[in-house]
């Protein structure tokens, strides 16, 4: 069975990852609309637990899954109850309330999460282990009181925090866990210059982009930077590459990696060096890069997969580093088309890149109807997206471990 699946992080006030919400849907829903919704929901849930590996997606952290109550009445495959929270929507509680079944789940050690704009009656609330408050619709005067009345043993999450202003409000109101894409929005960009180390990395990338490539000159420049030397040797000797013999020299390392891989890894090092950005933002960036590359491979753009990768990799450069993309592009001799695509300039030359990036962003948010529409426009089989995304997040997680 083919399913759409994506994960959205839940962060604490220090922007460390508390857990994930897993968004999912049967990717064939539109093609088989007559299918019983109860059966369809169960199929996708079984897919999550068996084919995708729900615990792998969560990396050992709590997982939240929005699940209709009727699905939980079905026979589910084995799953780790202690780390999974089943989310029940406020509307379902209001319309199809079954207290006896809620009690049964609670006493069977199911973790239940309530999601809505207001709290249910205390007689119901006590059976829920977590509460998500929807900041897009919850009145401020009500939501601001909730942190004071929620018992300390329950997980309270400010949900749909989509900008820094809402995040600051939630923080001030006493919320300690947050879900939304507020952390991927750029704040005030700094006007200061790149550090000396960053300039050195940019210069090496520039040399690698040159037609007159000389590996001995690249080696010499890398050796000037002790941090970069250690980073590259550690990287090339990591399990990510799995070379049989230990690589001991910088020259051997860079020749083994080659021009394209060196450019990719140096940009990743540039993004991660001395950044205060949340780890999840780096994961999203790497996932975007890999997914963009995979999308290019799925289409007639395979010969441009490195360009797609680069545009995905630099899509959040300003958010991660605090520097503008324009400031970065001054140092990189990229083509006008790629530079414009990185800056988000829409024209006939950049459109295919920007459409692919838009598809990736829609997928991140779980906007499945628009994902299907965009796949159709780009001539991509939408039922492939779940597998491509899982490959991308797996690669991103492994890559971050390699350069940590």
Could you explain how this protein is built, in words?
It is a single chain. This protein is of the alpha/beta class and 404 residues long. It has 2 domains: 3-183, TIM Barrel, CATH 3.20.20; 196-403, Hypothetical protein af1432 (Orthogonal Bundle). It is built from 21 helices and 8 strands. The chain has an 8-stranded mixed sheet. A hairpin with a 4-residue loop joins strand 1 and strand 2 (17-26). Helix 10 crosses helix 13, helix 14 (279-298) crosses helix 19 and helix 14 crosses helix 21 (385-403). The two termini are 35 Å apart. The mean pLDDT is 88.
Helical content stands at 40-55%
Query: What is the number of independent domains?
Result: 2
| Number of strand segments | 8
Average predicted confidence as pLDDT: 88
The fraction of residues assigned to DSSP E strands is: 5-15%
User: What is the name of the CATH class of the largest domain?
Assistant: Mainly Alpha
Low-confidence residue ranges: none
In the CATH hierarchy, the third-tier topology of the largest domain is known as: Hypothetical protein af1432
CATH homologous superfamily identity of the largest domain:
Hypothetical protein af1432
Q: What is the helix/strand order?
A: EEHHEHEHHEHEHHEHEHHHHHHHHHHHH
- Cα end-to-end separation: 35 Å
Lateral strand order in the biggest sheet: 7-6-5-4-3-2-1-8
Class from helix and strand fractions: alpha/beta
User: What oligomeric state is this?
Assistant: single chain
Rg estimate, integer Å: 23 Å
Shape: elongated
How many separate helices?
A: 21
Major β-sheet profile: 8 strands, mixed
CATH architecture of the largest domain: Orthogonal Bundle
